[in-house]
């Protein structure tokens, strides 16, 4: 993917995020289709190529902005910048290397620490979710809330909250895929604790907030981006009408942020 007229003619940050996420997704799908690598090699090559393409486009389109990417060296000068793109070129490298469909591309923009713009592409499903989409109209909640959890290692707090709420647990891969399941209405809660970084959730949180969902730390405090240390270990995205119940269940389980 080469930088060029596409990024130079885009008018809004959301349009830019959408276009870059889609093109990175196309690149990654093509890489899968070539069949010249597999497994860990496929994942490594996907990370590298998507990262290079995304950074090239963002630097062309927004040369004065800073970029924080999982796959690039961290320029700490970003800490004094107002506008920082927070990028995960391939969220769910394991799922991608296994040629599953629950991996994602994250293009987020934080302004003064607030996740204001984002695009999350699910390339294998040919879907993209962006902050300038029309907010969805969600149906009434069912009798049992649906909670997406890691397919390999659900955090203990998620298991405790699921038990407290009698929630149906839905195993899924990447953070972006889980968050977008809530945005899309296929799940009601995504709760994580125990280790994420800003690039894992900046774009998903921006999209979730724009869709009218609740998004916070697990103590209910705001998610803040472009911190010196990009570790952001816990996250709650859920239907707004469930937020108080989920946060209460977290408190009852005695879970604190980062625990």
UniProtKB/TrEMBL annotation:
Q: Give the reaction(s) catalysed.
A: adenosine 3',5'-bisphosphate + H2O = AMP + phosphate
User: Listed GO molecular functions?
Assistant: 3'(2'),5'-bisphosphate nucleotidase activity; metal ion binding
- CDD domains per record: CysQ
| Source organism superkingdom | Bacteria
Stored Pfam families: Inositol_P (PF00459)
Task: Note the PROSITE patterns from the entry.
Answer: IMP_1
The prosthetic group or cofactor this protein requires is: Mg(2+)
Binding positions for Mg(2+) 1?
Answer: 70, 88, 91, 200
Return the Gene3D superfamilies for the record: 3.40.190.80, Fructose-1,6-Bisphosphatase, subunit A, domain 1
Q: What is this protein called in UniProt?
A: 3'(2'),5-bisphosphonucleoside 3'(2')-phosphohydrolase
State the organism named in the record.
Answer: Sphingomonas alpina
